[in-house]
Design goal:
Blueprint lengths: L1 H46 L5 H6 L4 H18 L3 H9 L3 E13 L5 E17 L3 E6 L1 H4 L4 E5 L5 E10 L4 E7 L5 H6 L16 E6 L7 E15 L4 E7 L11 E3 L5 E6 L11 E5 H13 L9 E2 L2 E3 L5 H7 L5 E6 L4 H5 L6 E5 L2 E2 L3 H8 L7 E10 L2 E10 L1 E2 L45
Length: about 450
């Protein structure tokens, strides 16, 4: 019995000794594997931040794979590479400009006397296109509204005069054109057209970089994240769906670029929607909203007075968004009256209709309607969407209108009534759509320094 007990103790000692040895060996193996894996992962993160488009092409990777790889490695690039943002900025800067404007303002002194005074302002812009004759720069409408003179300062600090080719006050977008023959060859070599991105594919939480001419001091860069998409923001003219970011956007940044980590422009910054009582809430116009408007302005032909387009409506008072919401009325241009035998009349537009879209672009003000007509020649066919009251409900109707000539304007079928809640201040039959799209005559918002 005693021998059995001794043997059991020996067996116990053997077992515990073996366990200790195997435990030490196993622990060393685990630590070794962990150490090696950490070394390899850190090395990969530092030396291989992602697959660029050029690398993907060299490797024969298809575009879908490249997009997925870039998306998957964006976080690694941002965290592990201290040069990530600076490299993006360096690549984007040749596509950005500073915009300086002058305007004449009418002021009133202490004694009630009025006088005119020149004022200056500044903003930012993005080079969005180039053809055989012109270079095109996109910016905010409120940057150039009311300006007598517009000048553009490029990446190499050279300054050139520009004219406003067209605007969309509702979307707060404008395009300035510069004659290529006036720009020095050295400047053209240093600048480039921006890479426009897809704002619909942007995700909340994605990194964003705001670049612009903050306060007119020169190029500034702020970094943050996309805080929200399709954020409804009320302006003095309309309600807009904007992209929200916590990257600081200050006066002077207006018209500048909000870019992603790949250097694609995903939005046009707007300090117009900033609030001094709030921090970390900047807004940008999504590129998928801005691009069709920019393209329509760039593609517009130069329109002479003789070829100016004519629609043939008398607009009533505009319907502010708060009225539209309170009274359940569509936001748009109220048709106070329609001219007999006009293009509008022939197409079926009626008194009391509310014009809400023009060639698939939203219309909220009479100014925005005129801006779009000013880009078109007589004879062009356009698609107009109206909302018509039918027993208290508004029914959407779409119609094709062939624009007439300004010289063909007739007389309205009825005189607008001042008793109508939406009677217009315009009691004369003034046809919509006049002027040269290159005249630089900007209708609209009071001159702003932002």
């Amino acid at each position: 019995m005693k021998g059995e007990i001794i043997m059991s103790k020996k067996n116990f000692l053997k077992i515990t000794t073996y366990a200790a040895v195997f435990g030490i060996i196993g622990g060393m193996s685990f630590e070794g594997v962990t150490y090696l894996s950490d070394k390899l992962i850190n090395k990969t993160a530092i030396e291989s931040p992602g697959i660029t488009e050029n690398q993907a092409e060299d490797k024969g990777t298809d575009s879908n794979t490249t997009e997925n790889n870039n998306t998957a490695t964006n976080n690694v690039t941002t965290v592990s590479s201290s040069n990530g943002v600076s490299d993006v900025v360096e690549d984007v800067l040749p596509s950005l400009v500073a915009i300086n404007v002058t305007a004449t303002q009418t002021k009133t002194d202490f004694f009630g006397r009025t006088y005119e005074q020149d004022a200056s302002g500044s903003g930012s812009g993005i080079i969005v296109g180039k053809d055989d004759n012109y270079l095109y720069v996109a910016t905010n409408n409120h940057v150039v509204a009311g300006a007598n003179k517009v000048s553009v300062q490029f990446y190499d600090d050279k300054v050139y005069d520009a004219v406003v080719k067209g605007t969309d006050s509702t979307a707060d977008i404008a395009v300035a054109a510069l004659n290529l023959k006036d720009i020095a060859a050295e400047t053209i070599e240093k600048i480039k057209v921006a890479k426009l991105g897809d704002s619909d594919s942007v995700k909340v939480g994605q990194q964003a970089i705001a670049i612009g001419n903050a306060l007119g001091y020169g190029t500034s860069v702020t970094v943050g994240y996309i805080s929200a998409k399709d954020r409804e923001v009320q302006s003095e003219d309309a309600t807009m769906k904007l992209m929200q970011t916590d990257a600081a956007i200050n006066p002077g940044n207006s018209g500048g670029a909000l870019v992603d980590i790949n250097g694609s422009v995903i939005g046009i910054n707007s300090a117009k929607y900033a609030d001094t009582e709030v921090e970390g809430m900047g807004f940008a116009i999504p590129m998928n909203t801005a691009t069709p408007i920019i393209q329509s302005i760039i593609n517009a032909e130069e329109v002479s007075e003789e070829d100016a387009a004519y629609l043939g409506i008398i607009p009533g008072k505009e319907i502010p968004s708060e009225y539209a919401e309170y009274y359940h009325i569509p936001e748009g241009v109220f048709v106070e009256d329609v001219t007999e035998d006009s293009p509008a009349k022939k197409a079926g537009i009626q008194k009391g209709d509310i014009i809400v879209k023009f060639n698939d672009m939203e219309i909220t003000t009479t100014q925005s309607l005129q801006e779009k007509l000013a880009l078109l020649k007589a004879g062009k066919k356009v698609k107009i969407v109206v909302k018509r009251s039918d027993n208290g409900e508004y029914i959407e109707k779409s119609m094709e209108v062939t624009l007439g000539k300004k010289a063909d304007a007739g007389t309205a079928s009825n005189t607008p009534s001042d008793n109508n809640a939406f009677s217009g201040s315009n009691n004369n039959n003034i046809p919509y759509g006049s002027g040269n799209s290159f005249s630089g005559n900007i209708h609209g918002n009071q001159f702003s320094k932002s």
